[in-house]
Amino acid sequence: MPFHAKALIAPLGLLLCLAPSAQAQETPLLGFTSESSTAEQALEARFDELLNRDNLRDWMERITAAPFYVGTPHNKENAEWVADLFREWGYDTEIVEYQVLFPKPRVREVEMVAPEQYRALLAEPVLDADATSGVDGRLPTYNAYSADGDVTGELVYVNYGTPDDYEELDRRGIDVEGKIVIARYGGSWRGIKPKVAHEHGALATILYSDPRDDGYFQGDVYPDGPYKMAQGVQRGSVTDMPLYPGDPLTPFVAATADAERMTVEESPAIMKIPVQPISYSDALPLLRAMTGPVAPVAWRGALPTTYHLGPGPATVRVHLEFDWNLEPAYNVIARMEGSEYPDEWVIRGNHRDGWAMGAADPASGHVAMMEEARAIGELARSGARPKRTIIFTSWDAEEPGLLGSTEWVEHHADEIREKAVAYINTDGSGRGFLNMGGSHTLERLANEVAREVEDPQTGVSVWQRTQARRAVSGNAEATSRPDLRISPLGSGSDYTPFLQHLGVASLNIGYSGENGGGSYHSQYDSFDHYTRFGDPGFYYGITLVQTTGRMTLRLANADVLPMRFANFVDNVSMYADQVSELLDQTRTATERENRLVQMNAYVLAADPTRTYVPPTAQGEVPYLSFAAIQNAMRGLEESANSLDAEILRVLESGLAPAQQAAVNQVLMSTERLMTNDDGLPRRPWFRHQIYAPGFYTGYGVKTFPGIREAIEQRNWEEAGEQIELVADMLIRVSGALERAIQILEGNEIAP
Amino acid sequence: MPFHAKALIAPLGLLLCLAPSAQAQETPLLGFTSESSTAEQALEARFDELLNRDNLRDWMERITAAPFYVGTPHNKENAEWVADLFREWGYDTEIVEYQVLFPKPRVREVEMVAPEQYRALLAEPVLDADATSGVDGRLPTYNAYSADGDVTGELVYVNYGTPDDYEELDRRGIDVEGKIVIARYGGSWRGIKPKVAHEHGALATILYSDPRDDGYFQGDVYPDGPYKMAQGVQRGSVTDMPLYPGDPLTPFVAATADAERMTVEESPAIMKIPVQPISYSDALPLLRAMTGPVAPVAWRGALPTTYHLGPGPATVRVHLEFDWNLEPAYNVIARMEGSEYPDEWVIRGNHRDGWAMGAADPASGHVAMMEEARAIGELARSGARPKRTIIFTSWDAEEPGLLGSTEWVEHHADEIREKAVAYINTDGSGRGFLNMGGSHTLERLANEVAREVEDPQTGVSVWQRTQARRAVSGNAEATSRPDLRISPLGSGSDYTPFLQHLGVASLNIGYSGENGGGSYHSQYDSFDHYTRFGDPGFYYGITLVQTTGRMTLRLANADVLPMRFANFVDNVSMYADQVSELLDQTRTATERENRLVQMNAYVLAADPTRTYVPPTAQGEVPYLSFAAIQNAMRGLEESANSLDAEILRVLESGLAPAQQAAVNQVLMSTERLMTNDDGLPRRPWFRHQIYAPGFYTGYGVKTFPGIREAIEQRNWEEAGEQIELVADMLIRVSGALERAIQILEGNEIAP
User: Fold this and answer.
1) Which of A398, A722, B220, B705 could potentially form a cystine with B224 if both were Cys, beta carbons 3.0 to 4.6 Å apart?
2) Cα–Cα distances in angstroms (integers) from residue B634 to residues A316, A684, B578, B645, B734, in the given order
3) B218/chain A closest Cα distance in angstroms
């Protein structure tokens, strides 16, 4: 059945649009002619009418009725139930299974053996106010991919456990070699903490949630309020995800039943020391028993004690043993073939597995995606099938490290490279303000959609509300730049394999800011918690459906793909300025610090009654030429502006189907051109040259990661090499834009 | 007996110095000829040799053996003992008595009456580790000059209780009218808190020490460490000191026995509502019982609870009654008449009264001053009597509000105006880094001295250590500006009546930064605390004596007074830039905020489920002309540079005694010229036009207070008037400098 908008343009024959419609006073939607834009808007109005808040609520209640982490019966039931629904809604649906490494704990013991005895509870209590807090089969509190081990050592408090934190410890003459570190959650992705601790010779890592970051300091604790109660624990993976995500035993290849696998010992992504998360109730006795220097001000949390660094005298035994089994991960893949361009795929995804009860993370996003799929299915059934293929993906095993999505992407890499238009991700979502992250070629599209979706609490657009928030927070640009910037993506959800491994333009969308935190990866991320504190009434759930639904539909139906390059160039040139400034700042800071070392200022400013190890002078920071990037940027800017103008022109004047197909092929390819086959230094899996998770920050993005991290690591030769690689990449992209211009100017019709 | 240095210069007859000495390779001391500089340095070397750490220890132990607040027997004993010692050391000594209002509590009750019962202890426990913590006659925990009252109301948490904090409450729709506010210490002088609470209609104010600012968050608590233990309480005055300090019943006049007095009710400086300080142990149950909005992040302390704003349901009764008696305050005034210029006074002071046991505050500074006086007395006895009169002042009743010093200054205002060269203040002092505050005409002198005094822990100069600390803290100027800046003075110690009422150039000197805090105004500011955590061994006590002793001696012996004006101009022009920038920033911020109001951004950025009262648009900020100040500054800069050069010239080439006397009279007068007879708007007692305590910050200084506070209060007309007054003042100072130049050029010999 043809997409209903097609009827409007069919009489025009070869040219999609000869002239702007008299009725369409407004600017047409991005990538649409006036006529197709009007049709698309009508379609979206129908889409909105189909949406039902009760579905979100009912589905969340069902999904979260029992634990559904990888390998649980309820996870499999959910997969089958979701697959059945997709089929019912008209999707060609399959359950794709991978065999992934998923360790579960057999022994978990954390006990203080000196100067007094304390055995950590490592358990979250059952609460009357939370119906699922006592459910059978609850996942114990642990960190997936911790090493097995039974070690005893003095405690050292390492704050967030980032490399900078160890420099502070160095200044105080504190070495963690042969010690056990206790680090609070926050400041970086959790997997960074044991990785850095291990690099410094620690025997084990204890992670805890400090109430300063996640507990009563933030607000009332559960069940009175949404924040983390005293015995609440954040579970989570500690695989070395910035090295590669997915099954730790099968980097680059799919974890099919017969895949060649590393051993656990061989896998570089698995932690080499034991890691165990504890609650702040369990942390307090340990921290109280420590002496040594008082922690720096910024390191002190909200527990009622003086924070000391140690080492000791608190001495702790950490004993952990895991069952290192393969478990089945079930991705649900649901396709609606496109009516006109079946080989152009718009992929939409959300993970389905959760630690513990997983209401916010991931069910809140998953049920929104389901409602989106249901409505699109219903529109298709009524005759409005999308022009491009839409693939809904319900990922399993995201929590242990993006396993479901990564294995599928690795499995189908060639076909995805060839066919993917874009990937739109959601994950946990709540109440408040629109968060938009993603590829900057999609920034204009994201803004266009955000301007049209209504905020359910205020009646203004979600764009306006987000703008207001940024403006009030002191972001001057929010009131002067036409589009709100979208954030570059690091990692932390399933867009990573699409964006950073294959170069598929991606978006990551959610609402937050007014739902209280504190349930993350704990037993209390439950239906009860979410419906009280997350998004009561699921109003923002529907808003999320309206947001991503529009993005999906516009990407699926646009005449010319809605990537726009002026926004891309504006952001990328800002990143180029930033890495150049980073080098200058590093030079200035180094000069300043070396001068202070030379004048002995660090020693003189320190209290002589305390141990203090002054920093030593560092090597000079050279000047590096950014000319290659600057020249490439200039060319790119010209191409981008010309192409954006040319696309507007042809959408008004019309273009031939062959031209249209050819230009869309080029537009689809641009993000692919931002990757390098060799990947980033020391982590070849990450291929995107503009966006990557930080090697030492984890989720946190590093833009121009090759250059930026070389500067941060003071590797000037590598920084110079990376500058050339980035310049080459920008020239490649520029070349693609030029080709698109030529196509649109009719000078070249690609085969 | 002549000052020994005089012998060196006597043969030169009329001219102090005809040519630089062949032996004096180094730059002579500020204000000294080469010969007199050499003599002064020899004198100071002898001064150093006389100093004895044991004296400081013994005297502190004696002073702090029993409570010695105003009106206690031990206070009087201390006064008599100190007076006897001064006499013994060769000083013409008197005890000057004033009758000052000093209320003491009869009833102190703070109890929570709903939603549960809690009666605050209001008591500091006796500790085995602290010998005087159980001594008889201890002063109860209270705030002097609180009103009597018996009121009951719901609690509102107001953070530090500054005007800005009430704006935050306004945004949340919270009104303190008819409520009792609980405010934490810090962020402003304590007297500001009940004053602002009263202005907003509160019934009473409870002050408490949050462990975030003053307790376990900062470090180990007493007696394990120096920080405030759970039941420790900060006593203190809550008179409206920024209005006027001194006896609240006798502003402008001395509180002699027969002085005309206001009634307590008439005194505008006495608080109009009850105010009671409590410990964090007493505060926790009250804060825990509050609900309402969660406090803003910056308001949250380190108690293990979620900080709520209220109002209520915690409902508290505050019942306070005081005996409003006059008590005798005993200043000890000890004079050593100058051998050459007896009518030029160098005044040196430290208060002697303390809340509770007062070891750090004030005994640490007082014993250092005593040792300084002893050594100067000994030098005088051995023939080296100072050229100018030195007056040592041991002030009583500083703690209730600078009463001893203020009454004496008011009593002798005319003579002080005529004769005072400078006032050098100390107060509590500890271990670490040199703090220099004061008149910027003395900045060069302070730096000169600091460069010569050795830090007892590192062996470098105290200047170098302070420079190192500033440099490491990111103060770029510390390594580029020849002199370290000294801080402008607000209030908080006995320099206030000298500097801000009469215009006597003042310095306030101390060491700190490595002694742990937490004992301030509590029972545990004891000999035991100070000798463990303050300045064990009294090494910095001796360093303080060396520092202030040099300042006193150089001011007393200099040929030309060591005021230098290039430093003054450099600082004052910075302040002029700052007030002009403040106006611009206020304009920019107002425009920005009004734009946000207009676009409804505040409302849209707020959570609609919570009460939020958006700010309203404010009136436009006009442009004001600072031209009068800019022109005056230009003239002042020329005069200052010429005068500094001219002084250097005559110190090399020689000047006649009449010239010398005349120029010193002018130099003495310059600070006086910085005052206006009418004082500052709404507080005529404060006459200095450059330095004042902030009307709404208390101790914190406001430079160019008339202009700055008019801008802050958005009183543009007054700001314009104050700009003219400041310009006039700068022109007056400039005129004095020109007169000094003329004197030195020999064109004018003042009579």
Assistant:
1) B220
2) 68, 64, 16, 17, 10
3) 7
